[in-house]
Amino acid sequence: MAAILLLVALAITRITLGALLYFFAAITLMVIYAVLRKHYEYYLIKWAPVIVIGMELLLLSLGIGHAGHLVGSISSLIVALLVMGDERPKQALINRLGLSSARDRSRVRSLFFTYGQVDKIEKLELGTSYLTLKDDSIFFTIRIKTNERVLMKIDTADIEETYMRQMTSKNPVHYPSTRDLFLPARKLRTIGRPFLRDYFLVIRTREDDWTFFEEPSVLIDLHEEIERIRGLPPPNS
Question: Which of 19, 30, 121, 228 is the Cys-Cys partner for 68 at CB 3.0 to 4.6 Å?
Answer without folding.
Answer: 19
